[in-house]
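2024-03-11 09:14:02 INFO receiving multi-entity request
2024-03-11 09:14:02 INFO entity count = two
2024-03-11 09:14:03 INFO echoing inputs for audit
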Amino acid sequence: MCSALLNVVDVSKRFGGVRAVDACTFDVGELSVTGLIGPNGAGKSTVVDLISGVVRADGGAITFEGTPVMGLPTYRIARLGVIRTFQIAREFHRLTVMENLLAVPLNQKGETLWSALWRGRSVGEGERANVDRASSLLARFDLAELANELAGNLSGGQKRLLELARALMYQPRLLILDEPLAGVNPSLAATLAQHIRGLPSDGVSVLVIEHNLQMVEVMCDRIVVMNQGSVLAEGNMAELRANPEVVSAYLGVA
Amino acid sequence: MTPIVLYLVTIAVYFVIYNILVLGLNIQFGYAGLLNFTYITFVAIGAYLAGVTALGRAPGGLTQIQYIFGLGLPFPADLVVGALGAGALGLVIGFVALRRLRSDYTAIVMVSLGEIVFATVGNQTNLFNGQTGLLDVPQPLAGNLNLSFNNYQLFFLALSTAIMLVLWLAANRIYHSPFGRTLRAIRDDEDAAAGFGKSVFTYKMTAFVVGCVYAGIGGALTMEYLTAWSPGAWAPSETFIVWSAMLVGGRANNWGAILGSFLVPILFIEATRFLPPVSGHPVLIDSVRGVVIGLLVLGTLWWRPQGLLPERRRFIRLSVGHREEAVTNV
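2024-03-11 09:21:47 INFO inference complete, emitting structure
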């Protein structure tokens, strides 16, 4: 069993009269891929919003490597190494695909006003190193041909690939993926799932929301099932299939 | 110098100053997506502060002329004070308008704060001499150069062009730097940018203050050229001339800023001064000019929303090994 990188304990969130997340508790293990599944409206995306600081929780505790992150602004949580993608791709649409990746690394040379105005040699060096890294990621995600295309002109599936490549450009500790395979063609989805499966060996732990259960099984070490805002069950796919509550709430009878 | 040459020099000075103004707004809106609908306020504060830095102590008493400072400092101290003062006001207004608000609410707050500044400056007569404004401000280096009136016009054109070129180069450097790229990423999706650890507020504030400094410099130069400045020079609607120039020329493109500064404030506003007056309707041409500029902006947004010279895509070559890798992948 891996030690926990992220702990979500008793976290709740209400939107008006709706309890979107209700005393939700689960962990994400270090260097593992954890799946988060459940019916629509189970609160999966809200949990991701709470972890990444996009939405503020009403109660409970979220810690990343022992550091409490609840209440921190999004950018501070990101700086700890927690990066997320969105359910609907949110590319920087008037930047090129390459620029989308180059915009991501933190504390780049030339990223402050003064260093931009008095650009020294180190700016160019930093830029070249980032272009190298970005080129390799774009090639890995079949986007190299589109490197100089505006991101807004990409197809839905290509935007998903771009989001994943962009997130990896950051070199996150924990990558949270919200339905990364939605809208991606089946053969590419399988390739992507393999990529995601391999991320822990690059030092990236993953929490992934996904409805394609076959792919969930390929990708994940452990799966958390949510229903009505709280965790219904945890385990591997075989254990979950044997759990009648999970079958009735989400999996259905085959 | 014939009157026509003098006129053209005057027009050229306005063109150059408008260029500075459009560049500043372009940094705010074109680069960072900030809706500053009170840009002229920062122009005005730059002008006033430069004025009270260049002017000597206010005579007061029976003349009833009163204003703050009256430092009597030579050029370029007045320009620097004007630029920094506009930047400082940008810091204050930005802190209120950019901290928590989304862009549409930011725009509303900006307009309100601009109106507050306008009303305060007009009514608080001991600030900048109220509605009468500042008069007889010494021109840059005029005392040292001893040039004839005509030659001084040429000197001023050269001076403002040199300042504009420096600011144009700075704006270009910002655009092509990682800093500019982060601004454009925030413009496109600020939540996604925050999700990558970018402090959106800090970046927006920086872009906003830089734009305000440009406005302040433009204002200071205008005032120095006119040797006077009063509320009549900066009606809130003036903001939209700068906006029109930027939108028509092309946002996030500094060549577009030049084109827009030529088309809107010069071609449409100056050229229409030569239309024959319509008898019985002395202000008709002025009004028609406003309508024409409005239509020009509408037409641009409708048929060519990116402007005449759109934002340019920046081509970056892939690192060699990966170009080959990509080809084999296809």
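2024-03-11 09:21:48 INFO post-check: The first helix of chain A runs from residue 44 to 52.
2024-03-11 09:21:48 INFO post-check: Chain A touches chain B through 52 residues (CB under 8 Å).
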